[in-house]
Amino acid sequence: MEKLTLIFLQGLGNSILNFPIYYSLIQKYDVEILTYKNGSSDFYRELGAKVTEVASLKDLLVKSYRNKSDIVITLYPNWRRELVAINLADGLRKYHFKIPKLSQYFIGRCLEVDHEIHDVENNLRILRVLGLKASPYRDYLVSKTKSSFTGKYIVLHPTASTMNKYYPLDFWQELVDRLSLKFDRIFILCGHKEEEKNFCGQIVGEKVELKIGLKFNELFSLINGTEFFIGLDSSMMHLAALFDKKIYALWSFADMRRIYPYSSDVSIIAPVEVLETNDFKYPKSELPWLKRMSGGEMLKIIEGKSQPNKRKTDLNNNDVKIYVY
């Protein structure tokens, strides 16, 4: 079996998002993941992957001298990562894309990315180059769940990588108050950061249960049993998509043409400002337009009393509903 090295030097969200690519690759190759020591390494280890952690790009270069591979892929390349990938490749290989003078086998995606389609679909080109098709992966993920949570419940994730993504506290409280009439429990996922714990701790109710810093095996079980998932553009949203849960994705500023949750039943709730820009840099301050969405309006979407303003179909023929406010 040929050895393939997959370079994941991104945050947890992007690493989870691209699990379908990893799972397809392991059907044919002995895959090792090179990644920073963060949630990405924990996620893939929980799923039985072979993971090598690196502290920096320099550390990655040092390790690459000891650890050659037949094929190297970096999913989010820049010129530094490309050089590392080339250095990792062992021996003379066939060429691909626009580097015909290099006597290595290197697969990159940034050279012909299509900004109008999903990241996963962009990366499916890698599989085509290798003669692979996408492999169904959801049964494999479900097999990793170790326990079940009883009753009819939902999972919410009100936080993300920056507080400037957060929808206001009164939005969440109104939504929780109304959903409490319909469900036995409402689990709120929260990370270890103090600002996350402080924010989530203010969302209260008899049926509300705060889950702080769950391990991935616990997250898998919790998300697998939820009726639906409501959350921001975050790693937890992408994890819920892997389990093909019904998702209500609360957008703030990111490019939803490429990174929306990749599952069969997705509703994106987005401010009109997101649809009218091509500038998706992290905001330096709170986004005032997030205050326009209320818990009551959100409930109408959940109950089917509001109709989407736009729809799109991805390459898997999934219907993506977009509610613009």
Give me the secondary-structure category. Answer: alpha/beta
Total number of β-strand segments? 13
- Overall domain count: 2
> Whole-number radius of gyration?
20 Å
Number of helices: 14
* Shape estimate: globular
- The appropriate CATH architecture of the largest domain is 3-Layer(aba) Sandwich
Which fold does the CATH topology of the largest domain refer to? Rossmann fold
> What does the largest sheet look like?
8 strands, mixed
Strand order of the largest sheet: 8-7-6-9-10-11-13-12
- Main CATH class of the largest domain: Alpha Beta
In which range does the helix fraction lie? Answer: 25-40%
Give me the strand/helix succession. Answer: EHHEHEHEHEHHEHEHEHEHEHEHHEE
Task: Tell me the span between the first and last alpha carbons.
Answer: 51 Å
Mean pLDDT: 85
**CATH homologous superfamily placement of the largest domain:** Glycogen Phosphorylase B
Low-confidence segments: 91-111
Query: How much of the polypeptide forms β-strand, as a percent range?
Result: 15-25%
